[in-house]
Amino acid sequence: MDVSLIVVVVVITALAFDFTNGFHDTANAMATSIATGALRPRVAVGIAAVLNLVGAFLSIEVAKTISSGIVDETRIGPAVIFGGLVGAIVWNLLTWLVGLPSSSSHALFGGLIGAVWVASGSDAVRFTTVLEKVVVPAVASPLIAGLVAMIATFLAYRITHRTGEDTRRRGFRVGQVVTASLVALAHGTNDAQKTMGVITLTLITAGSLPADAGPPLWVIIAAGSAIALGTYLGGWRIIRTMGRGITDIQPPQGFAAEASAAAVILTSSHVGFALSTTHVVSGGVIGSGVGRRLAEVRWSTAGRMVVAWALTLPAAALVGAAAGWVAGTGAAGTVTVALAAAAICGAIYWLSRRNPISAHNVNDAATV
Amino acid sequence: MHINWTGLGEVLAVALAAGVGLVTLAALGINALDRRTRAHERGTSTVIATATSALCAAACVALIGYGIYLTISK
């Protein structure tokens, strides 16, 4: 069996993306529990990592398409997938550096759109589908989660306003841990299978697997481990923004935010909407800030976050286009892109060390 | 372009019912726990408070169990 260089590179890059996906999204499940002290930071990311791994093995339905139909799948080759993944990784790391939660799936979609566009022209991109499947849910889901969290927070305080402070704090903290775990599990079943889908489809196009094969066991193990490892590493910069930056979260709010997010994520995946966990949880946290009397929502932070959401698709598309174009020129191009991507990632990591954020100081300030 | 308004409405309705429902049940249960502690301190009957908190807890567990079922049966 002759496995070409590009296939090996794509598999490694897909796992790298999965890893960034993990640490970018730890905040979704655990930021509120860390902020309220319901869980110690290291324990929180540990639970999230285990549940992501479990989720990866539980998901029966592995993604059958790489792009969910937003680009013409017949025009996707390994170079396009590679370009798309590089675009997604670079954008994920940049948003992590500035501590902004943004959608990893949008980054992947953006990277693929850019890479397909330069490889096959704009008619390979289905703009209507992009609007229907990406833009509309991205606008609607944080609004829905925000509304649910706002009402839930209001009721939580209203019902317990005469309850002893100690009982209230303890009770809602337990609720927080349970709902946060549910979000982590749902994340594992959704996001790990995306990477499995990408790797499996790449192996199929390369002829290493028969056309209708499911993911081999090593792919499941590798993808599950990559996302769990990333989750355990903890995207502390994003956790700080999500837990402390948007609003000062108390246990009833944290519970309301995660419960609403879990409800929206589970309902919509049942109805068949692909939506971003990041958008839903951010909406939930903002809603929980609006729903508590006298709570201050830092709208400037929320605004920066929304700008990052809007930029995710086009920015990842630009990087994906450049990477896909160079990688498409042959083996030398592929190696060039891989080295350039590694250099950019190294530079971003080096920049992050000037202002390191870890489990020890994640709750110290509101922003990165 | 086709926007699936029915689906969006469905998500809104179910998420509203489940999310707000879960938080309300938990809050009522926490309330009952608090009443139980106070009744215990006063030496009055704790039966109703205990039953209410247990009922709320059971309802929360059922809702979350259904959530887990939805996650893994997909």
UniProtKB/TrEMBL annotation, chain A:
<protein>
    <recommendedName>
        <fullName>Phosphate transporter</fullName>
    </recommendedName>
</protein>
<keyword id="KW-0592">Phosphate transport</keyword>
<dbReference type="GO" id="GO:0005315">
    <property type="term" value="F:phosphate transmembrane transporter activity"/>
</dbReference>
<dbReference type="GO" id="GO:0035435">
    <property type="term" value="P:phosphate ion transmembrane transport"/>
</dbReference>
<dbReference type="Pfam" id="PF01384">
    <property type="entry name" value="PHO4"/>
</dbReference>
<feature type="transmembrane region" description="Helical">
    <location>
        <begin position="306"/>
        <end position="325"/>
    </location>
</feature>
<keyword id="KW-0812">Transmembrane</keyword>
<feature type="transmembrane region" description="Helical">
    <location>
        <begin position="43"/>
        <end position="63"/>
    </location>
</feature>
<feature type="transmembrane region" description="Helical">
    <location>
        <begin position="217"/>
        <end position="236"/>
    </location>
</feature>
<keyword id="KW-1133">Transmembrane helix</keyword>
<dbReference type="InterPro" id="IPR001204">
    <property type="entry name" value="Phos_transporter"/>
</dbReference>
<dbReference type="GO" id="GO:0016020">
    <property type="term" value="C:membrane"/>
</dbReference>
<keyword id="KW-0472">Membrane</keyword>
<keyword id="KW-0813">Transport</keyword>
<feature type="transmembrane region" description="Helical">
    <location>
        <begin position="134"/>
        <end position="157"/>
    </location>
</feature>
<feature type="transmembrane region" description="Helical">
    <location>
        <begin position="104"/>
        <end position="122"/>
    </location>
</feature>
<comment type="similarity">
    <text>Belongs to the inorganic phosphate transporter (PiT) (TC 2.A.20) family.</text>
</comment>
<feature type="transmembrane region" description="Helical">
    <location>
        <begin position="331"/>
        <end position="351"/>
    </location>
</feature>
<feature type="transmembrane region" description="Helical">
    <location>
        <begin position="75"/>
        <end position="98"/>
    </location>
</feature>
From TrEMBL, chain B:
<keyword id="KW-1133">Transmembrane helix</keyword>
<keyword id="KW-0812">Transmembrane</keyword>
<keyword id="KW-0472">Membrane</keyword>
<protein>
    <submittedName>
        <fullName>Uncharacterized protein</fullName>
    </submittedName>
</protein>
<feature type="transmembrane region" description="Helical">
    <location>
        <begin position="45"/>
        <end position="69"/>
    </location>
</feature>
<feature type="transmembrane region" description="Helical">
    <location>
        <begin position="12"/>
        <end position="33"/>
    </location>
</feature>
